[in-house]
Structure formats: structure tokens, C-alpha cells
Amino acid sequence: MYSEKGGVGKSALSAGLVAAARRRKRPVVAGDLDPRATFSAELGIAADSPPAFTMNDLLALDPQGDTGLAADAMVPAGEAWSGVQVIAAERALANRETDNVAVGLEFRLRMALKGVIPEDGVAVLDLPPRAGGKLVTSALVAATDVVIPATLDEDGRIGAAEALSTIRLVQDLGMNPNLRVVGIVPSIVPGGRSTLKDAIGKHLADTYGSLYRDDLAIPRHSVRQQTRFACVPITDASGREAQALTDAYDRILMAGVAQ
């Protein structure tokens, strides 16, 4: 999940896709490339006691042609997320952005994941909300598909536009020419009508055409924050709002894996 603005529901979408894949009995690997580690925390990995081998350590290694090293960094998610494997982030991961010694760091995650994801499995990568950089590029080089969540406000619009620019650069430079943009997905969408919401939605639709996926919109419901605080999957919550979010995440998951 990628946007170059924070607060647009990127980590929420990542957790939702993990929950949706888990409900479908798909093997799931969750990779956190954001040094704030909010995705890792929601999956039950405590920020104050990260695993001995994290995403930071994985990207610091020079693989020297080896593949599959991500298996050594994978740890089980919390009890509520049974069956999910996590490559956790930690604050030290930010150091990789300025690591001038790490030649070819941007390709290390792709090599590390090679052969690790089962054929019927799903890998979900949560990216930091920043313009380019080594962590973002590492994830975009490793990914097959990317979803861009966009709140229907100015931050969402800017984040989506800048994310697409970075994605196009990765494609055009030949670093991952086959990377597919699933779409720009309206995120944390409030109910009712709003002049700004409608204007931003129309702008995104007019600017990006079929890339703007209004059919995959994620509604704003308070149950999302409740499950985040409790570190449990949205699929474990009851009620109409939880079901609406579960359905939205499932549609996005299938839009990404159906191709």
C-alpha cells in the first residue's frame, strides 16, 4: 500500500487485506517497511520488543546472489492473527535510507522474498508515506501490484499524484516494468454528501480515468479504530459496519489477485 501522504488509511488497508486473505485461508506474509512500525504493532508485534531479525536487518544484508532470506526474518503474528507471518519494522529501519554502503539495497527485498511466498499465498507490504527513497523503492521493486489509498481531500489527492509519479519512475527505469497499479482507492470515506468529497472524487476520476476505483471505496467506520486498538482483524468484529469494511477489503484483495 502506498501514498506519499500520511493519514490516508494506508496501514489500515494493509491490515484489512491481511485479514481478508486470512479469512480466505490464504497463506499471508505481511512486510512492514515503515520505521514507525504501526502495521507491525497492529499485527501483534510490540514496538518496544521487536524480533531479533527485522526488515531492517534483512535490508542491511548483502545477499550476494542468495534468495529466500526473508524466511529467516518471518515471525508469527499475534494470537488473534494466527497463520500470518510478519517481517516486522523497527525505528532503526530509517537508517537504511542513508546507508551509502548498501549497494543494490533497492533489489534486496525482491531477492529475499523469492521462493518464500507460497503459490497460493499473499504478501502485503506497507510502505512509508514519503517521496521515493530506498525503502519505498525496495517495496515497489519487490511488488507485483500496488494499491494507492486516497482520502477524498487535498492530502489524499496530493499523496496519490506523487505516489503515481514514483511508481512510473520505477517502471520507466526498468526496475520493475511489470508493476501493476490496481487503482487509486477512495479511503476513509465519510457517509453523506460533501462538496469537497464530491469535488475531489470527480477530480481523481477525470484525471486518472479507470485507475480511480470508486467501486473499491473504503467507508469510514469507528469499528476500524476499535479493532486497531485491540490488535485484532476486522473480520473478527461483529456488526454492520465491520461487515461493510470486511467486504471492502475483500473486493480490493480480489482486484489485486484476480489478474
From TrEMBL:
<dbReference type="InterPro" id="IPR002586">
    <property type="entry name" value="CobQ/CobB/MinD/ParA_Nub-bd_dom"/>
</dbReference>
<dbReference type="InterPro" id="IPR027417">
    <property type="entry name" value="P-loop_NTPase"/>
</dbReference>
<dbReference type="Pfam" id="PF01656">
    <property type="entry name" value="CbiA"/>
</dbReference>
<feature type="domain" description="CobQ/CobB/MinD/ParA nucleotide binding">
    <location>
        <begin position="3"/>
        <end position="204"/>
    </location>
</feature>
<dbReference type="InterPro" id="IPR050678">
    <property type="entry name" value="DNA_Partitioning_ATPase"/>
</dbReference>
<keyword id="KW-0614">Plasmid</keyword>
<protein>
    <submittedName>
        <fullName>ParA family protein</fullName>
    </submittedName>
</protein>
